[in-house]
Design a protein that fits this description.
367 residues, alpha/beta, Rossmann fold, five-stranded parallel sheet, two-stranded antiparallel ribbon, 18 helices, elongated
Amino acid sequence: MKISQMKDVLGIAHKSQNAVHMIGEAGIGKTEIVKQFAEDMGYHCEVLQLTVMDTGDLIGIPETVEVHGERVTTWAKPIWLQRVHKANEEGKHVVIFLDELGRASIDIRQASLQMVLEGKLQEHSLGEVDGLKSLIVVADNPADDYDSAEFDAALEDRFITLDVEASVEGWLKYARNKGILSVITDYIAEYPEKLLFKPEDTSEKGSTPRAWEALSRILENTPKNSPIIFNLITSKVGKTVGANFYNFYNNYVKIVKPEDIMKIIGTDLGTEEKQRKAAKKLSKTTQKIEAISAQELAQKMMSEAKKGNIPHEAVIVYVASLKHEVGANIAKSWKEDETDKDYFYNEFVSNQPNKWYVKELVKASAQ
């Protein structure tokens, strides 16, 4: 399953009171997708990095208290559970995210078993709001990686268990929202197989979505002519991918950008005849663009139009210049995407219903 689909799964799991077990390669965004779900839903998200926790961190430490005149042993509430209960008091649902449970110690795994089976930790409840208990989500790497242990049947039966993988389209959308450098998003659009790359030589570092995001922050703070830039790139995404990206990075001016599109078609697009001529002229350039790169450029054109930097007509002239199936997929993605559909309907359906490109776009989006 594409990891971008996990937010739908998490919503269903919470309503049906099932825990979720995500299994996927390190760095593909398992933690981030859970945080996004919680943010979208207004939930509190409690992330527990189990591999760096000891038993006391997770379940609290024993203490003695007086009950009915006797000293008895109980367990102090761990601070993370206090945050959960505080969120519940404020009327917020909670997601408890157990990261890398398979690599945790046996004591941590046993305590987590109680959390999943009973919805409690020692005598402490994990809390609930409106009759719904906290949603428990576990993320793990595949069992043959990083010495990760498999669950026994008693625990696995309590989960919706899904293998997840990185989605190039989903990651590019995430990257745009996070402000990741366009040189990286354009590279991934051009070479989608490099988003998550595992070299044949297991001693060599590979690339992950998390590594690309980290590299973006590095490049933002590194002069382009720095003598160490190659080393910085390969330190994050490995030598094989790093050498390829370094070449792309140095030749980035050759990539087609919105400003290049505007130089070809101009801004005088007020009539159907001019728009058709512009699309035909532009097609000599855009017919060669691969589908994912074309989608990424369409998003950039849309962004520039929303800012008022280019006319809205230029966006659809661009889409109309692409191969028909590529343009149809872009139109369909706009129509179905929660973020883009308002722009699609408002700018190209409601506001300008008689223009030729609207008919073409609406027709394409229905295919």
